[in-house]
Amino acid sequence: MVPGSGAVAAPNFTCRGHDGTPVKSEAVRDEAEDVPEEDVTEIAGGVYGDPEAATRYWAEQSEGDCGLMATRMVIGEITGAPPTEREIIDLAAETPSQCSPGEPVYDESFDPSDGGIGHGTCARDLPLLLDHFGIDADYTNDDEAADGGLDTGLDALADYLGNGQQAMACVNSRIIWDTDGDRTNCGHMITVAAIDFDNDIVYLGDSGGADTRGEQVSIDTFESAWATGDHELVVTR
User: Fold this and answer.
1) How far apart are CA 60 and CA 74, in angstroms?
2) What string of H, E and C letters represents the secondary structure of the chain?
3) In angstroms, how far is CA 65 from the centroid of its own chain?
4) What are the tens digits of pLDDT across the range 47-105?
5) Furthest-apart CA pair in the chain: how many Å?
6) Domains in the chain, ordered, with CATH?
7) Ramachandran class of 124: left when φ > 0, alpha when ψ lies in -120 to 50, beta otherwise
8) Has this prediction a pTM greater than 0.85?
9) What is the pLDDT of residues 221-236, one digit of tens each?
10) Distance of CA 159 to CAs 14, 34, 173, 178, 230, Å?
11) CA 92 to CA 109: how far, in whole Å?
């Protein structure tokens, strides 16, 4: 857990490949509690963010490393020089996890049952990797926002994107991809490039498969998928 965090929700470990195979069991979520509305900018319409950021540094994941690949895209957007998948994996393997003390942020051989393709990442650890590239970022979710932390939710996300910040969200991939299976928990990390309120489009940087490049979903679909993880969000400053 990130020092100073007041959240009580169990962390989510991402990610699922587009074939739906879990790398590590998703955390069992408690029933969501009512979260008071936060004092954020009310979004009236228009496009917030940069739709091209969904594809500019996109690459398909080859392991259960969607969180790392989303982080890679954020690094690319800010520095113009994203690391390779291998480089971000090696960095994560050498970085101690704050979410799971005693373990690295990412371990390719963590779970023998998955054939050694990685155990996924905890969203709380992703700011550690961004910091290596001189990028400051914060983690939040519904619990942290309700406890006075960084705001989350659709209006807050649009506000961040409109300010030129980069954002990563934990979503339920089966809702995003409209496939069968458990739709109650988040287990897939993506970037949110832009939200077009006028045309009901959310532009996603999704490394899950060859056919997820330039992914676009409706606002309701995105919100449903994001809500399964208590609106987990990593946003740059």
Assistant:
1) 15
2) CCCCCCCCCCCCEECECCCCCECCCCCCCCCCCCCCCCCCCCCCCCEEECHHHHCCCCCCCCCCCHHHHHHHHHHHHHHCCCCCHHHHHHHHHHCECCCCCCCECCCCCCCHHHCCCCCCEEHHHHHHHHHHCCCCEEEECHHHHHCCCCCCCHHHHHHHHHCCCCEEEEECHHHHHCCCCCCCCCCEEEEEEEEECCCCEEEEECCCCHHHCCEEECHHHHHHHHHCCCCCEEEEC
3) 11
4) 999 999 999 999 999 988 999 999 999 999 999 999 999 999 999 999 999 998 999 99
5) 49
6) 45-236 (3.90.70.10)
7) alpha
8) no
9) 999 999 999 999 999 9
10) 25, 22, 24, 27, 18
11) 13
